[in-house]
Amino acid sequence: MEAEKLLLILTSIVVGIVCVIVLFMNVYPVFGRRPSKEKTLAFSRSSQYLNGKFENPVPTMMNMGFMNTVGILLDFAKSSPNRRPKKQFAMGSPNLIKDLETKVTWFGHSASLLTIDGKALLLDPMLGKAPSPFPWFGKGRYSGGLPFEITQLPVIDAVILSHDHYDHLDYGTIMKIKHKVNKFFVPLGVSGHLIRWGVQPEKIEEYDWWDEFTFEGLTLACTPATHFSGRSMTDRGATLWCSWVIKGKQSSIFFSGDSGYSSHFKEIGLKYGPFDLTLMECGQYDDRWSDIHMMPEETVQAHMDVNGKLMIPIHWGAFTLALHDWTDPVERATRAAHANKVSIVTPKIGQTVIVNAADHPIETWWK
């Protein structure tokens, strides 16, 4: 009888904890919102939507079983002196003015401001302290802050999102910029997060892979990537992930989003190349998840596959989300670029790059 009482008490505790977790995930806005039932029914028309979730068309290995997860956590727990900068580094002074010149300002990780044909496009604007649902815990952005105030940003013609992970879609940033953004272009399902955060539904447009559309004189295309999505323990694959093609009158840009190396880069290059500039994921890699994050040498190969001219390596320089030294991505990518005679530019965080300039000197500011 005592054993039965103890079992009942333990069961009640477990059920209570589960209820609290579920309630918290539904109340806490940072987690966003899963797509509605109506949305998921519409997703069935997408070739990427299978068995109730979005999937990559190629086999994608990312072993996150119990033992592998424990191994990764133990590896992160080991001290490594070079996983973060030893001191804060100097940043550039951004040119945030909208004009007809094609220019890009990298803000660290994957966040960039692209000005093209007089339009300001903000790509994956994670401008917050840390890519986490609880950003006040742990170590944050390497640079401590950004070389500008969000209030200094011009009116943003469009925010372009590649997927809904915390290091690309940041609740705090959206709350600060949503009043000055005219449009949000997102992959399928991501609108639910934005609507929960107060973005007007009519400002948001969702796209599937290979959807092409025009926006105020620009041609944009939502293109494939090999990755995954999710903001909580229960919504993996609930929304789509993608890369983006942005074509103006004078320049053509490719933004890789997050992706493992796959044949889709060549497909994009054949359909939309060449590109004057590629913003290519380079960083946060590991052999254990190499199918969903490229190695730096693959970053350079992907740039060549899409037929890019100038490459800026992104997805590094702001946060520690993998076990490699913080400078490894840019150093390996630079070596691979030189070996393959690829034009690469490595701006400081906040330094504006004129895409069609005659010369793009490489600065080793991280040393």
From TrEMBL:
Highest taxon of source: Bacteria
InterPro entries the UniProt entry points to: Metallo-B-lactamas, NAPE-PLD, RibonucZ/Hydroxyglut_hydro
Electron transport as UniProt keyword: no
Catalysed reactions, semicolon-separated: 3',5'-cyclic UMP + H2O = UMP + H(+); 3',5'-cyclic CMP + H2O = CMP + H(+)
Pfam families noted in UniProt: Lactamase_B_2
Membrane spanning stretches: 6-31
Free-text function comment from the UniProt entry: Counteracts the endogenous Pycsar antiviral defense system. Phosphodiesterase that enables metal-dependent hydrolysis of host cyclic nucleotide Pycsar defense signals such as cCMP and cUMP.
Protein name: Metallo-beta-lactamase domain-containing protein
Protein species of origin: Paenibacillus phytorum
